[in-house]
Every structure is written in C-alpha cells, then in structure tokens.
Design brief:
This protein is an alpha+beta fold. The protein has helices spanning 10-22, 38-50, 111-131, 152-159, 208-227, 271-288, 313-326, 340-346, 371-390; strands spanning 56-61, 64-71, 74-84, 100-102, 105-107, 137-144, 166-169, 178-181, 183-192, 238-246, 256-265, 293-296, 301-303, 306-307, 332-334, 351-353, 368-370. The strands form four sheets. It has a six-stranded mixed β-sheet with strand order 1-2-6-3-7-16, sandwiched between helices. Strands 9, 10, 11, 12 and 13 form a five-stranded antiparallel β-sheet that branches. A three-stranded antiparallel β-sheet has the order 4-5-17. Helix 3 (111-131) crosses helix 9 and helix 5 (208-227) packs across helix 6.
Length: 393
Amino acid sequence: MKNFKGLANQSELETLLADLVAIESVNPAYKGGERGEIAVGEYVADYIRKLGIEPEFQPVLPGRPNILGRLQGAHDACLIFEAHMDTVTADPMPDAFTPLVREGRLYGRGACDDKASLAAMMYALKLLKEYAAGGHAAVLLAAVIDEEVAYRGALKLAESKPRAQGAVVGEPTNLVPVIAHKGVVRFRIRTRGRAVHTSRMQEGINAIYPMVEAIQALREQVEPRLSARALPRLGAPTLCVSVIHGGLQVNMVPDECVIEIDRRTVPGETADEALAEIDAALDSVRQREPSYRIERLAPDLLDYALDTPRGAKIAQVARKACETIRGETEFGTAPYGSDASKLAELAHIPSIVLGPGDIAQAHTGDEWVELMQVVQAAEIYAQLAVEFVRYDH
C-alpha cells in the first residue's frame, strides 16, 4: 500500500459523522446532559464490531464507560487513536442534533468538537482493514468520556497504562499536527467578613473590599511576570479572573466573596509553581492589612501542558502522513488543552493532537466542520498507522 490518498469515501464518512452528531451526548455537567455519552458509545461499539473488532467498555463513571477497540497489526508497534464523545450544551444552537449539510460543511453540535475526529478515526480502521493487509501498527481506538469537564475518561485510559509507542488525540487542529499546548490550573480565592445590616455597616466587615485588593495584587504582581515568559508560537501563560460571587442582598454587608481563576500554564511551568506565585501575591495583601481574611482554596482542576519534541517518532510520522495526503505541513501549537497531555504525562506515551476542523467553530451557535477535512483526516490517520511501521530514523 503506497498511500491512502483518495481512498476514503466522502458519502460514507458524511453518513457516519451525521449519525454521531444526531446522537445527543452532552456532558452531564451541562444543561441537557442527562443521557451522557452512552448512546454514542454504543454506536461506536456497534461500528467497530462490524469491522471484526470486539469492543471493550472500560468503566469510568456510572453509565459512562470509555469504548476501546484494538485493531491488530505489527506486534512491535502500537498507536492510540483517541477522541472524546461528549459535547458542550446544545444552547444556543437551534436543531443542534439535526445534522445539516450545506456547501461542503456539516453543521451540528459536536460536528467539529469532537465527532469529526472520532468519525475519521473509526473510518481509518475500516481503511486499514481494507487496504493495508496488516502492514500497519496495531491501533487502539479509544472513544472517551468527559473531556469537556474534567478529563476523567482520558485519566482512566492513562491510568490503565496502555502499551503504545505513540498517541494521536483528535481535536480540531485544521489537520496541523500540534506538538505543544498549554495546561491549566483552576482554583478559587475566598475572602471572609462579617454580615450586618447596611445601616450599621461600621459594625460589619465587607468581604468584597479585601477581594478588590487581592485582584489588584494579582494584576500588578503576577500578570507582568507571565507576559515575560512568552514562548515562540505558543505565547505567554495567562491568568483570568473568570467568575466572582459576593453578597446576598443590597442592604446587607457581604460576609463572603469568592472568585474563580483560570491559570493557563506553558511547558516548563508546574501547577505548584503557578500556585506559589499566587500565594505570594496574596501574602503581600495580608501583610499590608493583617485583618484581611483571604484564602486560596485547593485547585478544582489541574491539567498538564504538552511538549512533545519535534523529533519524536509520532511527530515525524504524523507530519509525513499529513504531507502525503495534503502536501507540505508544519508543526503547530495550541493555547487550549487536550487529552494528549494526560497520555504523555501519566502513561509516558509520546502524543500529538491532530484532527479536522477549526477550534474557532467549537462550542458556537453554528458549529460546523468541512467534510473534505474529515475525509482527509481519515486518510491521514490510516497513512500514519502504516508509516509508523515503516519509520526508520
């Protein structure tokens, strides 16, 4: 098999992707997510079963398993193809689960993020079965849950220590192989006061006032340091105060104020270092006013940055596969996170992110993906599995 260019059937892939989009799989953390991912998981299991691959339902959360399927191949080379099954809420997208094809695009919730990647990976197994005659790496397809909230599907997969020499995580990268992306630390800061009637406010302690100073300290002391750490192409680490809650009613001095912070890390930064920098800024506020009751709470979410070397086998093979199907290709980076960092950090599997679609379309009110990119993605994934066996560097 020389290459897979032109072998994927767009009509078949369109039907496959439309079927996946039509199955509601909103994450249960969001509005409309009562069913979770199970129906999509059953569809994936049925599809690979028809290819002669027995699916495994890997328990993660009640009623929310990962779906795994292994395509046998070279005994000394194994790849993971991983994509997530959950989506964000359907709002504000009308007819979110009624796939619509128009001008070469397929519209629907999850079409771009992440069912296009999932469909292409599923179809790549079909291409390998039909055209590669076993001359390819073994492939573990992993359709996982909960990427949109807490990555628990990817964490379970990584903790199971699958034996693989490389992993491709499907996310909308416009078919550019992404080798580095940011991590994240999400946490809250809480200030406390004493509630009284506002007519006697001098007897209370307003919890909002110390929070104002805490935010100012973060902006003056932490943000400039982050800007100075910008990396080529990936940019600087960031800090965003995303949510604030304080007070119960207008005639009551607030006794508590809470902010939620999203801190994006770059390769080379650790969560502990990021939090220590926050703590130092808060300490400076306490030192100026010892009566302030300010606490930084334990993180709600931690995720790692991804930093796969350009020379890694999975990176080089992915680039070659992209060039075979699409032409000259460069490596990319991303400001968002993905499941790839868990496989790299916890399972020690060199990983990249690669998939059809543009992240600008994810989570939008008119989410769509170009069908030609989905076709090319399936061919790239299949090509990658063949090139992974051939690679000699």
